[in-house]
């Protein structure tokens, strides 16, 4: 088979394998090899065998009661770029699997990966405070072949938060966001530990509304952070 680009070749190979219940991964990629055309090899995720890790401190193999999905599956495909243009050709080296096809691909880490477009959607929905389960339902409704799990969504959101915080603590990240969005902030700290004991912030537009309507002040007592169940008068 001939494909117009390497990306098209990879996408077709993975989608075809997923359709038949197999997860196909890139085993080897040769791009910048002198005097050789770019090549790519695809294999089943269960190819090869499990390699025991050597403990650095003891210098011997670990004895752990673990399982492995590796079963030395011989399935192998080879893609090669044509010399005339940017097209790629795919050749079957071994089209046999030594294990049955998976009836459900949920739980397969590679098959459940999010695409770049799905990650961008997840970030946008996370900024809008959309719950994780609703994010997963949206992605699955958008793509019927999506086999991501809640763990995939949690990990993607955690990775996004780590990148956004850039090594800062939660309170440091909060302070930076308040400053970024032009909030007015006031806080008190403990004299000995320098830990923040009281923190208050308000947006400038809210102050303008308060000045315009000084006799009207409303607070939502059903807000989820009111864990102490204080009445409105005490909150004010």
From TrEMBL:
Q: Where is the FAR1 domain?
A: 17-101
Q: List, alphabetically, the Pfam families matched.
A: FAR1
Name of protein: FAR1 domain-containing protein
This protein's species is Dipteronia sinensis
- What's the source species' lineage? Eukaryota, Viridiplantae, Streptophyta, Embryophyta, Tracheophyta
